[in-house]
């Protein structure tokens, strides 16, 4: 088809709500759009290990993971960048020295530090509560990270990113200062509120990976549509032919979006697909 679009979907807060539920309307919209010849990709901060079966079962053409450190098209790896073994060792030792719990994000799995499962529970609940869900008192780390692996060797060679619980924003500033060879960021919460810090491969972004993937497919960037809800998604919306912000998104991302749809829990994805003519 001459008007085929390549659609890039952030996961958390865009395709999936903050209790890890996929709205049925979103599933139907993705399937119909693909049935009409459009290509649909996930474009997420999650590693491939966090893309669980219920997401693949929707029907997808590929994945941009790790905020752009990994990309695949129909099971073919297009891009993969990982930390060196020495970088991973330095970060793990630094986090242990500061008493910060963390997890390694790899395509082979998520690997939690010794006390992450218990230490992260209040932080995870604050994250979900900050996204507008109030019934979080029974929420556990296992609800959010069902396949996280504990007790494994934390010195690895296949790490895309390491996320860690912030005791204060100073932990992020210290990470930025102490690891100039890595990309330092934060996530979680609304606006400037940060719950987690992260360190990952430098010189990567969702935008860079999208450009590589579009080139590999033989398409045009002008024919891409990006959907997101968070500040980290802004490069994706800016590089795509059209950027769509979710209604539950930050004010920063809404400011750069060409279209703002409804909240993820109010059929925002499906409504935008209809508005843009991706489905009938």
Automatic annotation (TrEMBL):
Sample GO molecular function, one term: phosphatase activity
Pfam short name (any one): Hydrolase_3
Origin: domain of life: Bacteria
Recorded coiled-coil stretches: none
GO cellular component: cytosol
Gene3D superfamilies: 3.30.1240.10, HAD superfamily/HAD-like
InterPro entries with a match to the protein in the record: Cof, HAD-like_sf, HAD_sf
Classification via NCBIfam families: Cof-subfamily (TIGR00099)
PANTHER family found in the cross-reference section: PHOSPHATASE YKRA-RELATED, PHOSPHOSERINE PHOSPHATASE
Name of the protein in question: HAD family phosphatase
Taxonomic lineage from the root: Bacteria, Bacillati, Actinomycetota, Actinomycetes, Micrococcales
């Amino acid at each position: 088809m001459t008007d085929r679009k390549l659609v890039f979907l952030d996961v958390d807060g865009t395709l999936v709500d903050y209790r890890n539920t996929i709205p049925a309307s979103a599933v139907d919209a993705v399937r119909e759009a693909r049935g009409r010849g459009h290509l649909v990709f996930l474009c997420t901060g999650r590693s491939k290990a966090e893309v669980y079966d219920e997401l693949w079962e929707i029907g997808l053409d590929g994945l941009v993971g790790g905020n752009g450190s990994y990309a695949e098209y129909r099971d073919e790896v297009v891009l993969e960048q990982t930390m060196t073994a020495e970088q991973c060792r330095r970060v793990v030792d630094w986090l242990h020295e500061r008493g910060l719990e963390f997890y390694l994000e790899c395509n082979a799995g998520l690997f939690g530090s010794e006390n992450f499962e218990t230490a992260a529970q209040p932080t995870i609940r604050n994250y979900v509560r900050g996204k507008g869900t109030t019934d979080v008192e029974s929420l556990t780390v296992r609800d959010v990270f069902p396949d996280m692996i504990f007790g494994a060797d934390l010195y690895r060679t296949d790490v895309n990113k390491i996320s860690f619980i912030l005791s204060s924003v100073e932990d992020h500033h210290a990470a930025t200062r102490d690891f100039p060879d890595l990309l330092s960021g934060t996530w979680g919460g609304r606006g400037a509120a940060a719950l987690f810090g992260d360190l990952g491969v430098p010189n990567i972004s969702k935008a860079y990976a999208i450009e590589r993937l579009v080139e590999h497919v033989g398409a045009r960037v002008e024919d891409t549509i990006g959907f997101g809800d968070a500040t980290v998604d802004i490069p994706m919306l800016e590089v795509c032919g059209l950027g769509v912000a979710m209604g539950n998104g930050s004010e920063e991302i809404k400011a750069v979006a060409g279209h703002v749809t409804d909240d993820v829990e109010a059929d925002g994805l499906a409504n935008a697909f209809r508005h843009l003519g991706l489905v009938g």
